[in-house]
Write a structure and sequence with these properties.
10 helices; alpha/beta; 325 residues; 8-stranded mixed sheet; 4-stranded antiparallel sheet; Rossmann fold; 31% helix
């Protein structure tokens, strides 16, 4: 049985809002509100939801780019948010990130050689010959020629740039890779190539992915389990096939029904959500989804539901945050 590589418990992140003449704190943006999940080694957790639900904040907090407001996370049984100094530096080799926009995530002033040498230079690994050999090996692994080392990132297409970003992410043989919408900026034809490359690398290197995206069709292709987020909370969590075939939460059902079907004869029933997503600065009372939920009652407006197992069996975990499921 595979061990858990990452265990997140009640993770919360609030960003302060300052205002007035003295720039005093006047409120908070509630980006994450008690997120809990586990990821097994070698598996992929897909994180989906509308823009502003906290997906990217979750990834950046796990990378220590943001300090959590509260909660904990264990990576390889170590407390991710308490380690500092040399221990934190070593941990950073094991957790890497693939960014959304390959045009912004690569420095246009640096050659590909400089970009791929940098991880080894920062961690003082090997000499120039070693770094050059590794850079060529990485380029070959992502399907680019060695001659690319002498070129700059702006000379490549979007798909090629993302391949360079992936090469940089896997340079130090990480154990966990946070993928923040890595194919959303690419053409559809290129998306499939990059996804297949990521799957090949996962198999070869035994990588664990947290795959953040808003395209549910893409997430199903690559994920083992899926967490559906709404306003900083996980509202449903189970394996990928179950999420798509038997969604339980009203929000998940609406997201699934919105996936385009490439068949003009298909006459599916769309579950359209009314209204806009509330501001994370002023969260609704009770269940945060009640302002848009078709089955909401007074109980939903007053009491916040807990994320609980909706199956009642030990064979499968299907967590849903809803009073009536």
């Amino acid at each position: 049985m595979k061990e858990y590589i990452l265990e997140v418990d009640n993770l919360t992140k609030h960003f302060p809002i300052n205002g007035g003449v003295l720039l005093r704190k006047v409120g908070d943006v509630h980006a994450l509100n008690g997120v809990t999940f586990k990821v097994k080694k070698g598996e992929t957790l897909g994180v989906v939801g509308e823009s502003g639900c906290g997906k990217s904040t979750l990834g950046k907090t796990l990378l220590r780019l943001h300090r959590p407001t509260s909660g904990s996370a264990k990576f390889l049984s170590k407390d991710l948010f308490s380690i500092e100094g040399k221990e934190l530096r070593e941990m950073r080799k094991d957790i890497q990130m693939i960014f959304q926009d390959p045009y912004e995530s690569l420095n246009a002033r640096h050659s590909v050689r400089s970009i791929l040498h940098e991880p080894f230079e920062i961690h003082k690994i090997g000499d120039y010959e070693f770094r050059e050999s590794e850079a060529k090996r990485l380029l070959n692994r992502v399907g680019l020629p060695p001659s690319a080392l002498d070129r700059f990132s702006f000379e490549f297409s979007g798909g090629q740039r993302q391949r360079i970003g992936i090469a940089r992410a896997i340079a130090l043989n990480p154990k966990l890779v946070v993928c923040d919408e890595p194919v959303s900026a690419l053409d559809v034809s290129v998306q499939s190539q990059v996804l297949n490359l990521m799957l090949e690398l996962q198999q070869e290197m035994d990588l664990t992915y947290i795959f953040i995206a808003h395209d549910l069709a893409v997430v199903r292709h690559i994920s083992d389990n899926i967490a559906v987020m709404y306003l900083g909370n996980i509202v449903e969590y189970t394996d990928a096939d179950t999420i798509y075939e038997k969604p339980r939460h009203p929000y998940t059902k609406a997201l699934i029904s919105a996936i385009p079907v490439p068949d003009p004869r298909f006459k599916g029933v769309k579950q359209v959500l009314e209204g806009d997503i509330p501001s994370p600065r002023r969260l609704p009372t009770g269940c945060h989804f009640h302002t848009r939920c078709p089955i909401a009652t007074d109980k939903c407006r007053k009491e916040s539901p807990i994320l609980r197992d909706a199956t009642g069996t030990s064979e499968q975990t299907h967590l849903v945050s809803c009073h009536y499921i």
